[in-house]
Amino acid sequence: MTARIGVVTFPGSLDDRDTQRAVRLAGAEPVALWHKDKDLKQVDAVVLCGGFSYGDYLRAGAIARFSPVMETLIEQAKSGMPVLGICNGFQILTEAHLLPGAMLGNDHLHFICRDQKLRVENADTSWTTDYESGQEIHIPLKNMDGRYVADERTLDMLEAEGRVAFRYLDFNPNGSLRDIAGITNEAGNVVGLMPHPEHAVEPLIGSGRTDGLPFFTSILKKLVNA
């Protein structure tokens, strides 16, 4: 029996179907989860996908963080369930305090959409084991509020503990401090990043590369071998 990976849909989610397809291409079973349901339907892992949940009112992810599904997800994540937050999902994870720091508007005050070069900094999380540390990949990026910020103490802690998962290369698209594109929690089961790996899983779409597929094969291997 294959692993079941839940994909949460909030009002304003854009990439839930793309994420479900990426999960399916990796060989796992995607399970649609609705934001109003506390029941996670016995999934083995959860992805919070990209979009503009609740229209980004107040702050990106600030309202979605209080959706009923998050009550169960926060509890399960703290107990070790793997959770991936992509773009708006990353914003929700910071608002829920499952990941430290915060997301602010891009420093140039414009929406940005581009193929982005990244370096894998941590290949030991639940979602990154099919990469190699130091590997350079290209993943599509699209955001308005993608600037990762934290106080110096938190940034130093993330660096010292190896919790910076991905870093922007060649060009910082949003002003994120220390070029941080994605981070992980201390246990390595919760990962958040601004670029969209679900848009880089087939050679005919997105960036024309499959650099995002290892996110989904990594978690499948972890769950199957658990």
Percentage of β-strand residues: 25-35%
- What structural class is derived from the secondary structure elements? alpha/beta
**Domains counted in the coordinates: how many?**
1
The level-1 CATH class: Alpha Beta
Per the principal axes of the C-alpha atoms, what is the gross shape? globular
The CATH topology is Rossmann fold
Radius of gyration: 16 Å
Range of helix content: 10-25%
Largest sheet: 9 strands, mixed
Question: What pattern of helices and strands is seen along the backbone?
Answer: EHEEHEHEEEEHEEEH
Low-confidence regions: none
Q: Overall mean pLDDT score? A: 95
- In CATH terms, the superfamily is Class I glutamine amidotransferase (GATase) domain
The end-to-end span amounts to 13 Å
| CATH structural architecture | 3-Layer(aba) Sandwich
Strand order of the largest sheet: 2-1-3-4-11-10-9-6-7
What's the total number of strands? 11
Number of helices: 5
